[in-house]
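Run: sequence + adenosine monophosphate -> complex structure.
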Amino acid sequence: MISPALEQLMKEHEDTMIIPGENVANVMKEHPLEHALLLLSQAGYSTIPVLDREDHFVGLLSLNDIVKKMLGIKGIDTANLEILTVADVMKTEVAVMRPDAELEDVLHLLVDSAFLPVLDAEGKFCGIVTRREILKAVNYTFHVFDRKNSETKVVVHANSNTVN
Ligand code: AMP
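>> structure
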């Protein structure tokens, strides 16, 4: 269990921990792979969330998955890019979280994923929590915790001086 004092400090970063959906590059599951490949290269990310028309999260699409589909026996075959859609190659077994997830669970899941899609109770996409943002919050927490600890020691020391 994470100590309540540390959890409280981490929560001071809560606002920046979730990247809101409107700032996250995504692709529709109906899109042809060719379009998705363009989107991925423009966004500059190797993996992005896949949504349906009602904004439900349905999977993740990675550059790697697209390239694998293009690799035929004779080398790269781009014909598949026009025939297949995002739904044909996306990963659907994906770790996700709710906006109110326990910090401890989030930390465990981020060991194996660079980011976690955040979904509401209806499965609608709210944004992502990235390992990078969590590490920034952890870094902040460690520094502030250390400072608060040494301040407390100074106060205790000062008080004990007064008593003596
Ligand atoms: P970072 O920790 O910022 O390197 O992000 C880790 C991963 O999260 C990236 O490789 C992307 O797959 C995903 N990601 C981060 N920010 C965004 C964004 N604004 N839009 C789409 N995907 C993102």
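>> summary
The CA atoms of residues 21 and 157 lie 49 Å apart. The first strand starts at residue 18 and ends at 20.
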